[in-house]
Design goal:
YgjP-like_metallopeptidase, UTP_pyrophosphatase-like, alpha/beta, M48 family metallopeptidase, Zincin-like, 5 helices, 17% strand
């Protein structure tokens, strides 16, 4: 996988017709506007919904942007609970059933600390999948994308058209790839003046 990076108090509350599929975004999203709130934006879970609190004066475009930001933050907070290898295996089974008709069945899945140039790897002959520990703490949809990516490699080894067709069913592919590209780009930024490697 080295080639890949691997929405109102005082006004009607709005909810999306079709909530996104994973993490906090699998919940109904309710945006509440407050005239008392000047600059801060916050989000929290309330039962089966995610509530995003924003200032009343915020534009529609700012609202959309901040809802996305806060959902990502909430997802990152919720995924900080480190998944064990057994939980990764359960997640892989769910993703395979949802997006690959259950055809990808890895023999083993585990976190590793020796993958610093790639997010995940797969050895189809052994049926083994390894995910970089650097994914821990990233939003759930990002971890799911990398896991699904490696599951797809159990069925198609390379990155040709057949491989990418397998990932078309996952609705967060482009967003997850963008997130990983951003993390990778940030890691390549030059050091600040005076900073040095230890």
């Amino acid at each position: 996988m080295s080639a890949d990076p691997l929405h109102r108090a005082g006004t009607p509350q709005r909810e999306p017709a079709t909530p996104p599929p994973s993490g906090p975004e699998a919940s109904v999203i309710e945006v509440r506007r407050s005239a008392r709130r000047r600059r801060t934006v916050s989000a929290y879970r309330e039962g089966d919904r995610v509530v995003v609190l924003i200032p009343a004066r915020m534009s529609e475009a700012e609202e959309r942007r901040w809802v996305g930001v806060m959902l990502d933050k909430l997802a990152a907070q919720e995924s900080k609970r480190i998944l064990g290898d057994a939980e990764l295996a359960e997640r892989a089974e769910r993703l395979s059933a949802q997006h690959l008709d259950g055809r990808a069945r890895p023999a083993s899945i585990r976190w590793v600390t020796n993958q610093n140039t790639r997010w995940g790897s797969c050895t189809p002959a052994e049926g083994s999948i390894r995910l970089s520990h650097r994914l821990q703490g990233m939003p759930e949809y990002v971890v799911d994308y990398v896991l699904l990516h490696e599951l797809a490699h159990l069925l198609v080894p390379g990155h040709g058209p057949d491989f990418w067709r397998l990932l078309e069913a996952y609705p967060r592919t482009e967003r997850a790839r963008g997130y990983l590209e951003g993390v990778a780009a940030a890691g390549r930024l030059p050091h600040a003046p005076g900073a040095r490697d230890e």
